[in-house]
Specification:
The complex is a heterodimer of chains A (408) and B (304). Chain A is of the alpha+beta class and 408 residues long. Chain A folds into two domains: 2-118 and 194-270, Rossmann fold; 278-406, OB fold (Dihydrolipoamide Acetyltransferase, E2P). Chain A contains nine helices and 20 strands. In chain A, strand 1 (46-55) and strand 2 (58-68) form a beta hairpin. Chain B has a single domain (70-303), classed as MetI-like (MetI-like fold), CATH 1.10.3720. Chain B has a two-stranded antiparallel sheet with strand order 1-2. Chain B is globular and about 80 Å long. Chain B is mainly α. Chain B has 14 helices and two strands; from the N terminus they run ααββαααααααααααα. Chain B has helices at residues 3-8, 10-37, 58-67, 71-78, 80-113, 116-127, 134-145, 150-157, 171-195, 199-207, 212-240, 244-249, 257-267, 271-303, and strands at residues 40-41, 48-49. In chain B, helix 5 (80-113) packs antiparallel against helix 11 and helix 9 crosses helix 11 (212-240). In chain B, strand 1 and strand 2 form a beta hairpin. Classes of the chains: A alpha+beta (408), B mainly alpha (304).
Chain lengths: 408, 304
């Protein structure tokens, strides 16, 4: 419970509704998300307040407010065109907001020119200066800051060691591999020790293996330097691996700001549930509540017993979201336990599709109502005699705590 | 490999075609000019001796070879007329190319920063004057610059001057004509390098604390140097040998080498001296070309 308690503090100033902490099933294996010890200070490092940016009458960013604390690794996640890059560019100063404030350390920097901001950016295409060596690329920002020559030399060497580029100092960018260029770009943007480092899809150009190791290195680096990182990405795995908090954006506004785990296990809206990860959705009508349980009558899956959400349900029409790995398959259903028999949701159907993906297998089950439910189960045993095949009749079951009731 | 087989393979032929062109239309004529430059002027047809006559046998050809001399080249370097012509050509080319760079760079820079759909239009505007004959455009300038021409009328009308200014037959008119005529050759290569430059590089520069002016000098300008080199060479080399513009717009008191060459050839009928002047000009122009070649090689190596 302490872990969940800490997470509530993380979100305390995001002005978002708190879903029930105990809605998170304790028995599910939880991926070890490293979490910073978070203390909410009075004034965040960066406060974005009611920012609006229009391009030719279209709102790229629409009345967006967000607080980011010092030392935080924050990810802006969203589909392309959701305004996340525009927001990042406003933080860097390449775009000026039409309305609203961007407060850095309490000072409005919305109209400050990019070269006068204590903020640096790592560009998606790296934007390394092709005519300058690795060393001169990294020193570029330091020279502009009129740092003494000796200090520049020390700092550049530090940076080169930090990103492990020793021996490549004299190379030009086009004599480097993609991964090396990415490191130069990172070193260059870190050299000035910015108050906030902005990263625009920093790993998009790397291949999968390199991307995964770089994700880890970036997180480690951020912890070590204690700097504030804001990363823009469309890759949810990347956001979840690296970030302390994720802001999910759609159509110019933030849909939800939460820790990776909360975003996945307690999405605020149907859109977030569908955007982050895979999900089964059942639309239905809310029946009378029985204590902490709600009965929802759905067309596709009969009556589903779900844990009542933290916020009172105000609409009769709701949507029940169940993640595929929360839906377990068995031949006869779970052993009936007198205490819980009533509350376990059982759906019967036929397996229509089996996809073996190594670590886990996903199944599509066509229910007797005609709806299709997806389930994914970890392949915990190497030799699984009991694996389900297509055309097999199964029971798909999940507990009320596995359900998230969504009102929007 | 037999000639037949070379021509049987179109791809190979395409590869050697430029060399055939160079040999037929550059090296062979240059051989003629070089030979004439080593000959002596004579009142004859053709107006120089010796003449190689392959029908006279080996001894005659040997004698003809013995008659060749470097006298005309000695004359070129010892006579002020030629030395001054060369110097003037180089000075005019250097000054014009500098003006062209100063005028052309901002235009190319502006073009490269236009919205995409307007860049094509701007490019057209630069090229369209070339659809009119070069001579007609120079004559139009004579018309504009003459005593009662458009320019003087405007200046008088605006009361900027009280009497018509003499423009024609001055160096100003010549520079105007040269800059006007060669501007596209400066703009197009500059535009080509500036347009392909990543805009994110300037953003990166400003993100790292460079003011717009610093970003220009530290990023844009160094990266546009290949375009600058190409534009400078495309202008400098032909301007050194320019004949028509100085002849029509400049005064006749000092001549560029192209004019001197023309005089020797057509007025003095001294083909050998004219040829020697042409050969020397080519040698002079090889220097910047070799420099450009080295520059390009360095860039290719840098890109590897």
């Amino acid at each position: 419970m302490t872990e969940d308690g800490a997470k509530i503090v993380v979100d305390a100033d995001s002005a978002q509704a708190e879903p029930q902490a105990d809605a998170i099933p304790a028995k599910e294996p939880v991926p070890a998300t490293p979490e910073l010890p978070v203390i909410a200070p009075d004034m965040p490092l960066l406060r974005i307040d009611g920012v609006v940016k229009k391009f030719g009458g279209v709102h790229a960013v629409n009345r967006l407010s967000l607080d980011i604390r010092a030392g935080e690794f924050f990810a802006l996640l969203g589909p392309s065109g959701c305004g996340k890059t525009t927001l990042l560019r406003m933080l860097a100063g390449f775009e000026t907001p039409d309305e609203g404030q961007i407060l850095l350390d309490g000072k409005d920097i919305a109209q400050v020119l990019p070269h006068e901001r204590p903020v640096n950016m790592m560009f998606q295409n790296y934007a390394l200066f092709p005519h300058l060596s690795v060393r001169d690329n990294i020193a570029f920002g330091l020279k502009r800051a009129r740092m003494p020559r000796a200090d520049i030399s020390t700092r550049v060497s530090e940076m080169i060691a930090l990103v492990k580029l020793e021996g490549l100092e004299k190379r030009k960018p086009d004599q480097l591999s993609g991964g090396q260029r990415q490191r130069v770009a990172l070193a260059r943007s870190l050299a000035r020790r910015p108050r906030v480092l902005l990263l625009d899809e920093p790993l998009a150009a790397l291949d999968k293996k390199l991307r995964e190791s770089t994700q880890h290195e970036l997180t480690e680096l951020q912890r070590r330097l204690g700097m504030t990182f804001i990363i823009v990405t469309h890759d949810q795995e990347e956001a979840m691996t690296m970030a302390d908090r994720i802001g999910v954006m759609d159509a110019g506004h933030l849909e939800q700001v939460a820790t990776p785990r909360k975003l996945y296990e307690a999405p605020h809206s149907r859109w977030v549930a569908e955007f982050v990860g895979d999900v089964n959705l059942f639309e239905g009508e809310v029946g009378p509540a029985e204590g902490t349980r709600l009965a929802i009558t759905t067309r596709d899956a009969g009556t589903i017993i779900a844990a009542a959400p933290h916020d009172p349900v105000t609409k009769p029409q709701v949507c029940v979201a169940v993640r595929p790995e929360k839906i377990k398959l068995s031949r006869r259903g779970p052993a009936t336990d007198a205490d819980h028999a009533q509350s376990i949701n059982r759906l019967e159907g036929i397996v229509t599709d089996v996809s073996y993906l190594g670590g886990f297998t996903t199944y599509k089950v066509k229910l007797d109502t005609g709806a299709v439910v997806r389930s994914s189960m970890a392949n915990t045993a190497r030799l699984d005699m009991d694996a389900y095949n297509a055309t097999q009749r199964v029971v798909a079951w999940f507990t009320p705590d596995d359900c998230v009731v969504l009102q929007q | 490999m037999s000639v037949r087989r070379i021509f049987a393979r179109p791809a190979r032929f395409a590869a050697i075609a430029p060399y055939i062109w160079m040999v037929l239309f550059f090296l062979v004529p240059f051989g003629f000019v070089l030979k004439i430059s080593l000959s002596q002027t004579a009142i004859a047809q053709p107006p120089y001796v010796p003449v190689f006559d392959l029908t006279q046998g080996f001894a005659a050809i040997k004698a003809a070879f013995a008659a060749l001399s470097l006298d005309d080249f000695r004359l070129l370097v010892s006579d002020d007329l030629y030395v001054l012509s060369y110097l003037r050509s180089l000075v005019v080319a250097a000054v014009s190319t500098s003006i062209l760079l100063l005028v052309g760079y901002p235009i190319a820079y502006g073009m490269a920063r236009l919205p995409r759909k307007w860049q094509g239009v701007a490019m057209m505007l630069v090229i369209v004057p070339f659809w009119t004959s070069f001579l007609i455009r120079i004559y139009a300038w004579i018309n504009i610059l003459q005593h009662d021409g458009l320019l003087n009328q405007i200046l008088l009308g605006l009361h900027l001057v009280s009497t018509p200014v003499v423009w024609l037959s001055t160096d100003s008119a010549m520079y105007l004509g040269i800059v006007y005529s060669y501007l596209p050759f400066m703009i197009l290569p500059l535009y080509a390098t500036l347009a392909k430059m990543e805009p994110s590089l300037l953003e990166a520069a400003s993100d790292l604390g460079a003011s717009p002016l610093q970003a220009f000098w530290l990023v844009t300008f160094p990266l546009s140097l290949p375009g600058v080199a190409a534009g400078v060479l495309l202008c400098f080399i032909p301007i050194v040998g320019e004949f028509v513009i100085p002849d029509l717009l400049a005064g006749s008191d000092s001549l560029m080498i192209g004019q001197t060459l023309w005089l020797e050839f057509f007025t003095n009928k001294d083909w050998p001296v004219a040829s020697a002047a042409a050969v020397l000009l080519l040698v002079l122009l090889l220097a910047p070309l070799l420099f450009y070649d080295r520059l390009q090689r360095r860039q290719l190596e840098g890109a590897r």
